[in-house]
């Protein structure tokens, strides 16, 4: 059985491949690694997030929430955990969120190149009207509410027409500018994600981003963190009862 200290600080990504649980350096709770973020010390001495859990060196684990990472910075937890002098940016929590956003944008771009994304209100509505195999709806977080309302209504109506519940995730974690970057076009507000491996990767990464923004210091997804940014958005599921 691993000691608690071993759970908090690993011995490197290759030596701990089988580990599925780690201790959060802030809450001291043992959690599945999918609910945590691994941090390592870069050659420059700076602490950085290792979101793919592949960077060399020993890793310190923190609950995957903006609040928990900010608290780790405030408590000087990285210096204590790594037991050495390290550089910790005061903006580490927001820097980590920016990396999570970039990962989600990159995954959406890959899905688009694979032909798994339909963008634009008319095309998304047409796909919904044909009851196409939509894996998720994507709305820009800064998009107008009217277009979102109309597409959501179509999801509900399609569920009624099929005489079963419509269960389509709705992702609104990215801005229009970020959607533009991912899809290589301008003014993207609405998109539909079609089924495929690349789509699953995007959904996984967007869920991680949402969790980071919304989880409290106990790591519970869906609970808004204290002092969380007002632009925080989340993944919703449209379900017709």
Outline:
With 241 residues, the protein is α+β, with helices and mostly antiparallel strands. The chain has two domains: 4-90, Hypothetical Cytosolic Protein, Chain: A, CATH 3.30.1230; 95-238, Ribosomal protein L30/S12 (60s Ribosomal Protein L30, Chain: A), CATH 3.30.1330. 39% of the residues lie in helices and 17% in strands.
Descriptive tags:
241 residues, alpha+beta, 2 domains, 5-stranded mixed beta sheet, disordered N terminus, disordered C terminus
If you had to describe this structure to a student in words, what would you say it looks like?
- By secondary structure, the protein is an alpha+beta fold.
- It contains 8 helices and 10 strands.
- The strands form 3 sheets. Strands 6-9-7-8-10 form a 5-stranded mixed beta sheet, with helices on both faces. Strands 4-3-5 form a 3-stranded antiparallel beta sheet. A two-stranded antiparallel ribbon has the order 1-2.
- Strand 1 and strand 2 form a beta hairpin.
- It is elongated and about 60 Å long.
Set down the secondary structure blueprint.
Blueprint: H1 4-8, E1 21-23, E2 30-32, E3 36-41, E4 47-50, E5 60-63, H2 66-74, H3 77-82, H4 92-113, E6 117-119, H5 121-129, E7 134-139, H6 145-161, E8 168-171, H7 176-183, E9 190-194, H8 197-214, E10 235-238
Parallel strand pairs: 7-8
Antiparallel strand pairs: 1-2, 3-4, 3-5, 6-9, 7-9, 8-10
Helix pairs in contact: 2-4, 4-7, 4-8, 5-6
